[in-house]
Amino acid sequence: MIRDDVVEEVRARADIVDVIGEFVALKKSGREYKANCPFHEERTPSFYVVPDKGFYKCFGCGKSGDVFSFVMERQGMDFVEAVKHVAARSGIEVQDVSRGREDEDPHRPLYEINAFARDWFRRQLLDEKVGDRARTYLKGRGVGPEIAERFGLGYAPDEWRGLKEAAAKHGLDEAKLLEVGLLAKSEKSDEPYDRLRDRIVFPIEGLSGRVIGFGGRILRADAKDAPKYLNSPETPIFQKGHNLYGLSWARHAIRKEERALVVEGYMDVVSLAARGFENVVAPLGTAMTREQAHLLAKYCSRILLLFDSDAAGLKATFRAGDVLLEERLHPAVVTLPQGEDPDTVVRNEGPDALRRYMDDALDVLDRKLQILDQKSFFSSIERTRSAVDRLLPTLRAAADPALRDIYVDKVAKKTGVRRETLEAEMKKARRRPVGDSSAPPPAPGPTTAPRRWLGLGAERKLLMMMLRGVEWVERASEVVAIEDFDDPYHRAIFQALLDDPEMRTPPSSMDPVASRRLEEILGDREELDRGIEVFTDAVRRMRVSGLNRRIENLGRLSMSATTDVERQRLETERKKLIEERRELDPPIGRPRPAGLEAP
Predict the structure, then answer these.
(1) DSSP conformational letter for 592
(2) How far is CA 209 from the centre of its chain?
């Protein structure tokens, strides 16, 4: 059984709209929410949820009750199971004292380690001496103690083993600390070290309120050798593409405001929240994913995109817009002054200025048309044809039939292309052009792999991972050298990423061919959702290719050697490399060695 006071706490803290919204497409109707009843078939919604009173009722079949009775009825759970289910979503841990611990969450140790780390980072921030620089930095960004506490902000000291030693004193498993990415290893040493050092730490919460990962922003302005932001790696409890930073705090405000503000990073979320914007979330160092869009769709249908005003921010805006459209959401673009982001706007101009920019937000298609117009894309037949190609991805992405109809009509009028022609173009299966981020991936083939990444070249695959998040740049820099790249243009992109881990547009000095190659990779929206596996496979295959090149070269040198001694030396070295290759890429039937893991 579960104590009555615990049951009442869960009932009070539960968001009944959130819980029921997992199973039913609720729509706001005044102060209530309505939907077709999940317990009987009907064409006209008669199922209502009243969040203020915490109950639901269907006026068709008569079923009614609270959040627990809904879960029991819908999921076939008993009362204890229903309370525990709702409690988990509300961030409350309950124990059924009448049962054993057989059903304990297998990932509980990972959550406990993250909770310990959050508290430890928090103590470092509050320490009078250790956290002084970090507190000064946050104060300068307009983040006071109250907001820092609300978001659980912390500080990772500039030490190699501060967290590691603190965790050891509490008996925490070092292997688990490595698994969640709080510790790391390099190829040069097996001794683990703190992965986050001299960084403001942003705990990342799941919807249940439990910490699933961390983000860290470097404090040193001159730290050119380290990425500005570093995220936790993919773990059993943390998949970046399946979560949004700030959603656990913002979801009620999003539902109340009936719209969400999507910004680029942690600091934007915290800075806007400090100035009264409660309905703000951010992707976690990745392009917007279908899973993230699906999360937002549970709470609202209107999304305002407030990304940076530079070229990279604009590309990210339209990529996100198309993904949101695929989930029947209605995205609009907030245009900020050149060189500004939401954080700088609210700090320099104030919250009211940002609200004015938000009031002027344009639907994502209208914004595309506006930009094309400004660039004279409708000034000639050839450029108009090019404009149509740029607009088609957004037309295809619009899953809401009414919205798609409006889009097609608007583009037809603007371009002079007949509606029937546009609809025929939308249905065509075509090869995705450079920069088109919205064309759907092809249907899976006979391979057993669930994603297309298995067919990508290893070098391109690794670069795609590096461009998905700065943490992958750090990982790659530790296990891959520039000489490991065979393609000179991939080599140039790799070097540019080492120089600037946050690079998302080609530098002006980059070779034109390398620039085009980089644009292609940036425009590829392939879902690389099994990060560690993708990364490890790419590194392994690059090493095998590198070994093949060296083996072939040694073979040629051996054949042209002028002395037996030289030939013998070359052959010995060649055999060593062949054995090394066999270990990395064993023959069929022989297992690959464990231990080729990303650091």
Answers:
(1) P
(2) 18
Give the separation between CA 510 and CA 489, rounded to whole angstroms.
Answer: 9
Rounded CA separation 214/122 (Å): 12
Q: 64 and 32 share a domain? A: yes
In angstroms, what CA-CA distances link 182 with 70, 187, 297?
39, 17, 32
379 in Cβ contact with 372 (< 8 Å) = no
User: CA angle 586-590-593, nearest 5°?
Assistant: 65
Q: For residue 225, which amino acid is it?
A: D
* Amino acid code (one letter) for 377: F
Q: 511: which residues sit within 8 A by CB, 6+ positions away?
A: 489, 492
CATH number at residue 493: 1.10.860
Looking at residue 240, the DSSP 8-state letter turns out to be G
Residue 99: closest CA among 84, 112, 88, 117: 84
Tokens of 52: 């203020």
Residue 94 covered by a domain = no
The residue assigned the tokens 């790391």 is 184
Distances (CA, A) of 172 to 105, 108, 122, 177: 17, 13, 18, 8
Q: Report the number of distinct structural domains present in the chain.
A: 5
Residue with tokens 């690079």: 503
d(CA 210, CA 377): 49
- Taking each helix axis from N to C end, the angle separating 488-499 and 470-479, rounded to the nearest 10 degrees, works out to 120
Residue-level length of the chain = 599
- Which of 420-424, 430-434, 590-594 is least confident? 430-434
Domain range enclosing 412: 370-427
Q: Which residue has the tokens 């059903």?
A: 103
DSSP structural state of residue 207: T
The residue ranges of DSSP E strands in 36-149, in sequence order, are 47-50, 55-58, 64-65
- Taking only the tens place, the pLDDT of each residue in 362-389 is 999 999 999 999 999 999 998 898 899 8
b/e code 134-152 from CB counts within 10 Å (16+ = b): bbebbeebebeeebbeebb
Give the gyration radius of the chain's Cα atoms.
27
- Residue 56, beta-bridge partner list: 49, 65
| Distance of alpha carbon 432 from the chain centroid | 23
Q: What is the pLDDT of residue 94?
A: 76
Q: Are 505 and 491 in contact (CB under 8 A)?
A: no
Give pLDDT, residue 155.
Answer: 98
Whether residue 530 contacts residue 502, with contact meaning beta carbons closer than 8 Å, is answered with no
CA torsion sign for 192, 195, 197, 203 is: negative
Q: Is residue 305 part of a domain?
A: yes
Q: Are 439 and 432 in contact (CB under 8 A)?
A: yes
Q: Considering the domain boundaries, does residue 591 fall inside one?
A: no
The answer to whether residue 100 is domain-embedded is no
**Are 121 and 154 a contacting pair, CB within 8 Å?**
yes
